[in-house]
From TrEMBL:
Domain AB hydrolase-1 residue range list: 16-218
Example GO molecular function: hydrolase activity
InterPro entries tied to this protein: AB_hydrolase_1, AB_hydrolase_fold, Carboxylesterase_BioH
Species, as recorded: Streptomyces yunnanensis
Full protein name: Alpha/beta hydrolase
Keywords from the UniProt entry: Hydrolase
PANTHER family: HYDROLASE ALPHA/BETA FOLD FAMILY (PTHR43194), PEROXISOMAL MEMBRANE PROTEIN LPX1 (PTHR43194:SF2)
Signal peptide: none
Length: 231
């Protein structure tokens, strides 16, 4: 499937951005320009079932296949958040970027801090500004408005296809290319122990203290500082 893409900048180096569930390229509205200022041509996708991309069947492997069908091979850096991090890890061997950044990737939702079934995200489809602000107290009004817009364009079938019997640990055994895992200090996917385990597998691991799961929207300066040497 050819995915909808949005671009910032016109540099010779290419960076690709892959969003998490319920979102689309608009989640990167500050990150894209920040990377463009650093000399990148930035390509952000809408995963299938999100934003302006087509609908269809859903599953981690399909999300990954779409990235391979849409993105250029051998880019300078690829960055995936949450579900985007999972899809990127399943596509990385084929895409072969020079460097990969996994920002709080959704590799396992089973029993790290607590089991999270993605089916619960369906309830957010009808979220109002009060709900979005409650779960994301550090977001400004622009990000709240963007979240409401992306929820309106999101197919809840993407969450259902990841739930129930589809839940399993997909943590990579090793990095395929040099890889950074950026962990949210106040997230729900990783603990100090799991971070050490990832480091033992060959990943560089950095934590952004105080940030929730969507690090780039909670703390953009902390997010960018945590990528020093990788972007």
């Amino acid at each position: 499937m050819q995915l909808h893409t949005h671009e910032w900048g016109a540099g010779e180096r290419i960076a690709v951005l892959i969003h998490g569930i319920m979102s689309d390229h608009r989640t990167w509205h500050r990150v894209g320009p920040a990377l463009a200022e650093r000399g990148y041509r930035v390509i952000a996708v809408d995963l299938r079932g999100h934003g302006r991309s087509p609908r269809g069947d859903y599953g981690p492997e399909l999300f990954a296949d779409d990235l391979v069908d849409t993105l250029p091979v051998g880019v300078e850096v690829a960055l995936g958040h949450s579900l985007g991090g999972l899809a990127l890890s399943l596509a990385v061997e084929r895409l072969r970027p020079r460097r990969v950044i996994y920002s709080d990737p959704a590799w396992s939702l089973t029993g790290v801090r607590q089991t999270v079934d993605p089916a619960v995200f369906v309830t957010f489809k009808k979220a109002d500004p009060t709900v979005v602000r409650y779960f994301n107290p550090r977001w400004d009004d622009v990000d709240v408005d963007i979240e409401l817009a992306t929820l309106a364009d999101w197919d809840t079938g993407t969450a259902l296809a990841l739930s129930g019997g589809h839940l399993r640990d997909r943590t990579p055994e090793r990095p395929v290319v040099p890889s950074l895992v950026q962990i949210a200090g106040k997230g729900f996917l990783f603990t100090e122990e799991t971070g050490k385990e990832l480091a033992g597998r060959g990943f560089e691991v950095r934590t952004v203290d105080g940030a929730g799961h969507t690090i780039h929207r909670d703390d953009l300066p902390g997010f960018l500082a945590g990528l020093e040497g990788w972007i």
